[in-house]
Every structure is written in structure tokens, then in C-alpha cells.
Amino acid sequence: MSRILIIEDEIGIAQMISVQLRMFGFDVEIATDGKSGLEIKDLESVDAIILDWMLPDIEGPKLIPRLRDRTQAPILMLTARSEIMDKLVGFESGADDYLTKPFDMMELIARIKALLRRVGKSTDGSQEKKISFRGLIMDLETRRVTIDDVEVELTPTEFKILEILMRKPGIVFSRNDLIDLVMGYEYEGYGRTLDSHIARLRSKIEIDPKNPEYIVTVFGVGYKLGK
């Protein structure tokens, strides 16, 4: 299981990334400033680092050399600073990749996996290839979904929503959490967009979409898989 360290002072962003990484089978630790990042136990065994630029005690680029004294794990800088000179500073400081906020969560996951492949580390902590729930099966390699052996065609967004819910059956995801995880951090659309995707997804997998058995609404909170 690959171990990812997130050094990010905005705890909401850090937790959102952590949830998604854990869903993909990674072990995740969070540090909210440079000092605590350097003090993480067994820092030398970390497989990749996601590093914010504007930390409360030190700037990300200045922290990189100190991290390099302890670990050679690839570092992805995650920051709102999008100017080309900022990117050059990040790379010249030793960052291996650079992603600007707002960001798409699946792009972040893809970049982390690419960094891990580059250094010969596992990109799938769980090695899980299929997820199933009450006759509903997702093949994560072929991206095929079947229900009672009948294939269901889903859009990429519908697939993402269903995958998130199926990885954590019974766990309630708020609408905001799903929007962040599926559509990206700081997505500027409204909750109605998510509701529309859920409605279309239900029409494809539920026997009676008005009385769903798979994607259940938890009123005032969000959605979960299963009653």
C-alpha cells in the first residue's frame, strides 16, 4: 500500500483529498504546516508528497530542500499560484509536478499515480479491480457496469458518482462532498447539477427510480449506497 503525505493548511481541502486517495486504497497522512510535515513518523518511507505553497510557517518551495534531506519521494505542489514564474520556482526548488487550484480531483489522482509509476511504486493500494453490491458490479479496469449481468452504459460523471458510493456502502456523502470529489475542488456549479446526474444514474440502475434501492437520499444531508 503506497503511503501519501499531504502537507496542506486548509484542512477541508486536505480531508477531501485524503478521502479520495483512501478510496483508491492509499494510506494517507495529513500535516497542516511545514514543521509537522517534517516531524511525520517514518517520513523516509513516504511514497509521494502533496505540498501546498502557502503554509503558515514556511513556503512550500523553501520546505522542499528540507524534505529532501529526509526523503526522495516525488513531490507534487498544489497551489493557487498559477504564474509561469511561480511554476519555475516550484520546479527549480525540487518539485516533481505542479497543479494549480482550483483542480479536478481525478486529475490529481492521475498525477499522483504517474509520479508513483515513475519511481516504481504501486499505484493501486488495494489492487481492487471490481466492486460489487447486490448484483451491481463495477469493473474498474474496463469501466464496465453491469446489473444482474446486463451492461449499463454510464457517462464518465455517472461512473465517478457510482464508484465513490460503491467504495463506501452505507456511508453518507454530503452533496458538497460529492460535488468536490466528482466535479473538482471549487466547482462553481450548483447542487442541482449533481441532482441531475443522480437522477439520470438512478434511471439506469434502479428498478423504480422514484423508490431507489441503490442510491438513497438522506434528506438534508446527501446520498448513500443502499438502505
**Under the CATH scheme, which class of the largest domain?**
Alpha Beta
Helix content percent band: 25-40%
Termini gap: 31 Å
Overall 3D geometry? elongated
Give me the CATH fold name of the largest domain. Rossmann fold
Find the CATH superfamily of the largest domain: Response regulator
Strand content: 15-25%
Mind summarizing the main beta sheet?
A: 5 strands, parallel
Q: What count of domains describes the coordinates?
A: 2
**Overall residue-averaged pLDDT value:** 89
Report the count of strand segments: 12
Q: CATH architecture of the largest domain, please?
A: 3-Layer(aba) Sandwich
| Helix and strand composition category | alpha/beta
Runs in which pLDDT lies below 50 for 5 or more consecutive residues are: none
Number of helices: 8
* Spatial order of the strands forming the largest sheet: 2-1-3-4-5
- Rg measurement, Å: 19 Å
Write the H/E string, N to C: EHEHEHEHEHEEEEHEHHEE
Counting copies of identical and different chains, the oligomeric state is single chain
